[in-house]
Amino acid sequence: MPDPLFLAVAGTAVVVGAAVQSSVGLGLGLVAAPVISLLDASLMPVALLIATGVLPVFTLVAEWRHIDWRGLAWGVPARVPGSLIGVWVVATLDPAMLGAAVGAMVLVAVGLSLLPVRVRPTPGTLLAAGTVSGAMGTATSIGGPPIALLYQHEDGPRVRATLAGFFLAGITISLAMLAATGQADARQLASGAALLPCVVAGYLLGRPLRRLVDEGLLRTALLCTVAVSGTVLIVRSFL
Hints:
Radius of gyration: 16 Å
Pfam families: TauE
Number of helices: 13
Order of helices and strands: HHHHHHHHHHHHH
Subcellular location: Cell membrane
Organism: Nocardiopsis endophytica
Transmembrane segments: 43-64, 85-114, 126-151, 163-182, 188-205, 217-238
Helix content: over 70%
Strand content: under 5%
Protein name: Probable membrane transporter protein
């Protein structure tokens, strides 16, 4: 049974992150990952991957009609080589090194997205984003920004549903690879399972925010969330 203090602090972060992701499309990992890392870094990334794996299911049940299936067909397979890179990082390197580099790249990408040039979800960009997302998600549990940047100009339901599809497939791939290589233990799995009620609570709290986000605020909210995730990765690396 996880420590009560861990459940209280980490659970609060998970509720907040799940509420953000429920409305914007991503956010659970970026809010909860630094908190869990500071409380007990040995639980990362498996515990948070377990917790984040449930939220996409709720989103897909509600908005599956808006999924970009073509985008999933190109992006999801690319997560496999990316996840292999992430597994190698978890097994052999300090994930903070990758976190800092990825965080810097995310911030650069956010800056570029503010320019008049518009990057669309084409086969090439989806393959690249899927690979980077796989590496980020497996090593740091924050894998949403590369895909989110490609869909920043789409409407709210399409963004949330498509990201949910990416997350569900990607988390499954990451957990399977981490388990197969001995990087997931019973303590990590139990801690992640204990946080699942907090995910449900956050999802329910975030639902009323969807209408506000969908009324012209999605791109701003998405870019702010992605920028915060890049900053979190960098700060967490130094901590």
